[in-house]
What does this fold into?
Amino acid sequence: MPEAPITPDSVIELLTSEHILEPQEPIAPDTDLFTLGLDSMAMMQLLLQIEERFRLSVIPAEMTRDRFATAGALATFLDEKRRLAA
Amino acid sequence: MPTFPATTVDFFLAGLESFMVRSGQGRHWAVTALWLKGKPDAAALKEAWEQVHARHLMLGARLRRKWRGWRLVWESDGPLQAPPISWQALSGQADETTLIQERLRGFVFGQAIQKPLFLEVFGDAATGRHLVLLTWRHALMDGTGVNLLLEKLAAPSDASPPSVPEAPQESPALLYQRARPLMNRLHAMTRTGCRSAWSKGLPESGGAPEFQLIQLTDEQSSRAAEKLRQLCGEFFQMPFYAAVAVRALRTLHESRGWCSPEIHLHLPAQGRKRSQDLVFGGQFGTLPLFLESSALGTLDAAVAHVQQCYKDALKQGLPQASEALMALARQMPVRWFIPMVRLQNRGQICSLFHSHTGAFLPGRSDFAGAAVENVCTIPSVSTPPGLGLFFSDYAGKISATISWRSGSLTADEVAAVRASVSADLAG
It folds into this structure.
């Protein structure tokens, strides 16, 4: 059975349910994640959860600011990465 | 009398300072230095400085126990009177290093600093450059708090009520359960013979705080940024700087002929709910990493090892265990906490600075109307560990601070640490 696509909502759900980010306002697909506190520790937690939930491993060369700037951009990157790996 | 809840890390920093004072090391001071291309606007700086003191009652607060519930709180007498900003000419004074060194010892031109924050501006008549020194008590603030404070000092702003830190309340039994993984790990560390720069035989009272600053040129900074990008991606700085720091300590161990199978690295962990206004109490604990010395042979290997240990520590819940341990310790008198501080510091090289959160003063090109050339922080360190390495990144300019206690390291050892850091960053 094909896996469900990775959407901005699934990324937002991952960020909040795992307490990677705990903003006072809801996260929108285009909210800047760095201003919400995506620091090194949050980043490592995020990479761990991406591995566990989406079974994807992100390498340093793929860790660009643009790809991780918003939940929307991250979902697009991860979904594309999974499609290419299939 | 206004009171504020004390966070777990407030207690840790207070315990650390108490340990330093009781062992004759003095208070835990740090200096943040800003180099400006021109003269800052005196009126704007004064207004922002007074705003900070009027709005942040924490600046005049002391840690106190409440009789009811033995609760630790910050108690304030009200707004603190802002001390005058000191304006001086740089020429004719001592050089920058001597100025910073005296402030790390808690003195300004021979007078003991009485306030938790002290601001000075030194002008160089020949070049027009100005050096701003902000001396601050580490027991009150962490590095990220100072970064937020600098934002507030950079320009006066409209009044807004400051945030206060949150203090978690949990039962000691639950805290003990959560703290167990870390307690077990700390005991394992002592069994393996983990060592810092300090060792038995060196005086615990430590010497005076000493430091050296490595300010990379633009070309060297670009090289370091490229290395960082290749090893950790564009914005995941912490593993890179941590690897540079632990490799420097390994170099020191090797030069002494010491065998320390593990190196204990403490990283400050920031609260996720931190708002831009939370100058105080934003750090909730530390993330302890226990690195295998044998896995630090090359920078690439060291970065990969730090990343793996980082990942393992998160899987094992060590940040939560660290927070729980501090919350548990908070219920003790500070003097009972001191043995734990000593244990935690054993084998610990340093708590890294801004590298874990990203760039220093991101997006800000001016301070009180003057263009910023560079900014970095120079904290004093306690013995043990006796040595700290700290990294700052301002607008792509990378600086590293080697901070130690006189007597902990010889001049040759400092040179070896410096060479290791410089080679790893930009070699």
Q: What stands out?
A: The radius of gyration of chain B is 21 Å. The domain at 188-357+383-426 of chain B is CATH 3.30.559.30 (Chloramphenicol Acetyltransferase). The first strand of chain B starts at residue 3 and ends at 5. DSSP finds eleven helices and 17 strands in chain B.
